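Hey, sorry to bother you again with one of my protein questions. I've been puzzling over a protein and I'd love to understand its fold better. Take your time with it, there's no hurry, and the full record follows here:
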Amino acid sequence: MSEKKEESIADRKISRRSMLKWTAGLAVAGAVGIGVGYSASELLRPVPPTPEAVTETSYITVEKEQLFVNSGHSGPVSVAVRNGRIIRVDAFETPNWETIPTYKIEARGKTFKPTIQKSLMNSWHQAARRYVYSPERLLYPMKRVGYTPGGKGDISNRGKGEFVRISWDEALDTIASEMERLRTTYGLGAINIGTSAHYQTRGAFCDGIFDAVNRFLGLYAKKGPTPPDYPDAKNHLPHGGNWNHSWIGWACGPDNMVGYYWEKSQIWPPDDLLEDTLKNSNMVIYWSQDPTSTAQMYRGYEYEEYFRWIQAAGIKTVAITPNLNELAAFHCDKWIPVQPGYDIPLELAIAYVWFSEGTWDKAWVETHAVGMDKFQDYVMGKTDGVPKTPEWAAPKCGVKARDIRALAREWAKGPVFVQCNNGGANRGWNGDDWPRLIITLQTMQGNIGKPGGNLNGTPTEPALALRRPAVGRTGIGFILRADPWPIHFHPHYAVWADCIVNGNDKPTKWIGGTTGAVKYWKEFTMEHMYPYPGVSEVKMLGQQAPGMFNIEAGWFEDKARAWMTPKIECAWTATIHQNEPMARYSDIILPICTNFERVDITSIVNKWFVYMAKCVEPLGESISDMELFLRLAKRLGFGDTMYNGMSEEDMAKGLFQWSHGPKWITWEDFKKQGAVVVPFDPKIAGLDKYTPKPAMNWYYTKPKGDGLTTPTGMIEIYHQPFADAYGEDGPISAIPKWREPSSLNLKEGKDGPLATKYPLIAHIGHFKWRFHSEFGHVSWLRELYKIKGPDGYQYEPIWINPVDAQARGIKHGDVVKVSSNWGEMLCAAYLTERTMPGAPKITYGAWVDPVDPRNKSLDKGGNAESIMTSQIYKNHSMQICAEHVMVQIEKWGG
């Protein structure tokens, strides 16, 4: 990391006795809570001095360093503070770690024990200090220039980021009065306040902010009047759109084969798959996976241990993915590059080899699955005249026929674990049939529940259930139950903007919800409509924690045009950073503090239990999310009941007492230590001993399969409800099949009508240096991956195979235009053979920087959404494509 000029003062070694004379500008920095050592170039904007401000002649003694414990997305971090300013963020080192009971796995003559000496923090939190003290920090409430309450103000500059500073009183009074005006004029349906899927700062309060928003709205709804009852309104959160396309292919496919995975430990959640894999697997296949990047969101680099263990155990490892990501490069024996969007022909060809060579577990299948005969007829070509041979698949998927046969034969030796759950391919073309075929292949080999078999996102460590502090994602909902908001507005992103923009003028209809599970089949196939008769269209958009809001398909289509419509009479955002893309389209923006500036509590995937201490005072006038909704509740008349008088510290203590925590540590010691490794102790769960229970083993060992939450109680290769709803060859068929992408709604694919103009298939995935869009603005991280153009602008890199680059006259570092049928953006060429020809790689989360923020235009920021669309690619649960897009790349001469 290069030396920062603006950090020169803060990073000097200064003895305690030395005295520093500060300028008036730096004195103001100290007054607003930025702290000693915050140089003039880092001040966000000039602010008037306050009575408490340090004068120009004041002297400040450098204080002794203090250490606090807080949490990132992936575990506890140690935070060093001096003179009220964070000076360092490190991994947390566990006190007395040798005495903490933990698991160990004895397998193949080796002993595997997890690292508990310290937290294995993710990449981006190593730059958390710059995240806190970013020049983008929002320090004060701001109002858009031209905004006037009452729905009659000028909105022509929404999106341009033109704001003036206002007071908290003015900001909250305006929002509260607008809520009251809209409620009494239109009804509760006029108010939509949403939050993000994953919040910036993981903790029970803010990762569970759904509960705070829902409680706030539920209490507010009691003021009435309430609208007519909506048929599926109960217990739905008033979220402004369905973000779940990240797993919708999985939910709309395999759920219907094995049962609803949130209800019962079938395929999900997994138990003890890591131990089972280390002891019994012959091979591990990582299909469409890059957990070295994506798993950092939840566990930092802890999964890296598991991958190393699998290698150390001598288990064969294969990665199937369009690019040589870090998992494939560092932890796999073989990389099989597959054309993006064409995984299904490879799967079908593997099945063909097994059927033709007789290397499948026919006896187990006959007693535990239904419909394999129909699938066999399709694969062998009896139903459509096209045998799905390796030679048929090779030109489609890009894998040589001999390699397909070799993989199939090695897989048939079994048992094989397949890491695939929610993999990238389930978010692309035919995203529901890819995971259905994974389950079909594992069923053919009898690997569902077999020792060493199974499938999921990652082999999971032992005793998941025993090590459950039980606080985290569901937040304050455990101690403050909320009445449901009586308005159901949860459309898919494919229609979200249409709902807002069209409103009553052109009511929007869609089919399905967020899952296709058997249990929710009625909701899955029912028709929804916006606005619902008797319920107002939305007039207010409120967005808390918008940092995850720019990761979905179709930037302008899905967000900007909805926030710019005059139908929205008041738009407000609560955010940490002022230039966060969605904040620019608001009328009012409210400053939220980071997790380092408030109290919270969390558990991190049941390994760490963390008291998130307040390390520094909130910068400027920023406040916590919890405080925001308390202040709004007070203005609306229910402040006393919002948290029932409890402070954030009280709620943290309440959650601790509710959890398993008191069984191994006192509240006082927990606060003092800051973080603890949850001990591996069966007695915590009231058990005498721990017995491994790999997922689905109960089903595998049955003489005849039953007990799944499917219509037949068995694994359903053929799913009758799909046939009944759509016909044998409908948008989703009764058995998993291959459909050319060009035959789907978007008409994409290498043989489709768009291929001439857009001949490359871009693969879009997650990035190791940011959490979706969070940390995307942090300069220290941007220096590691951005490529500076001749104009000095930092461009987002796009991986291009040298073969593709040479054909276009592109050299490494060139600024290029990436265009699709849906939009265009600028990137910088990163030439590498780590991505296969014809498959450039782009990552999610770059901050959008449109040339014209008011209209669909060229995006300088390289945000992948700019070249994607929210249009559905398949008429099945409103599926959109967030993984594959046809593009052309050319050297930019603008």
